[in-house]
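User: Structure with fructose -6-phosphate, tokens only please.
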Amino acid sequence: MLDLEALLRLDEGRMLQALRGFPEQAERALGLACRVPNNLQGFKNAVVLGMGGSAIAGDILAKFSLVPVITVRDYRLPAWVNTETLLIAISYSGETEETLGAFREGLRRTQRTVALTTGGALAALCEEEGIPWVPVPPGFQPRAALAFLLFPLLGCFARLGYIREDPASVLAPLRELRDACLPTSAHNLALDLAQTLRDKVPVVYGAGPTAPVAYRWKTQINENAKQPACWAELPELCHNEIVGYELADRLFSQGLVIFLRTSFDHPRVAKRVEILKEVLSSRGLAFLEVWGEGESILSQALWLLHFGDWVSFYLALLNGVDPTPVRPIQELKQRLKAGTS
Ligand code: F6R
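Assistant:
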């Protein structure tokens, strides 16, 4: 019998508190969208600079924007970035060197620039250069502050007419999901799935708008549950990853494929999933499907994202670890600062 109360004591970093507040944080963050100045209008494309938990906001935005958006996780910018580009630097801490490096380079190429951060060197740079920046509430892990990093962008793009869906429409389904995933919930599907994923290597598959969501599942399982995980996207994975199934029974017996599904999946993607399920079964590989809920594709994608966050939270507890600390990331950043290899 699972002693959830005892397991929750592992959550010393209070990830539960951040997680349970996601829908309300999203609502508050939509308000922050008003702070993005109107003089940034008229851009032809946008580049979101960020790493890790900050960068994922750019990936999600890119899937819904009516103008081209890419996320750059690098020190350098693509060659095509110019005066018509809106440059959005996102760094929760404001101290991420890749983001700062690319942003500095971008300031020489475009004047349409904005940043989202709690402060740090990024805020200081913005103040120095007179660049608008959206202040993000401190006290979270960057990955747990996603609502504050994503929703201002969704709100801003929606206001500019660059997103079709109304971002506020996702709030109700997110609240419902949150309530169902709380530790007090009688039918907690996130906890059930976490129990299934224990001692497995989750391989999360998304398609189109759920591709970055699959990546978010992978990274949340890594950072919260401290567990290896993989991801890939359809239809691309049908052109490479599936060949790797051939030796999976010998090399990857702990693998478990999770298909993230929505009612908006392209019919040919849906067909591919059915075939993949047969292929996986014939090779004795385990799989399951998780379907997003909500009226719009934006709702369903964010529903899946929030559900994955809960799954990774419970998986951490089942693994006997505190979901919050990410010591290897901090150690690596320290070593870089110290100049050691
Ligand atoms: C930690 C996390 C990391 C950070 C990344 C970049 O919770 O998710 O992936 O997001 O190291 O740091 P920031 O977001 O401060 O620029």
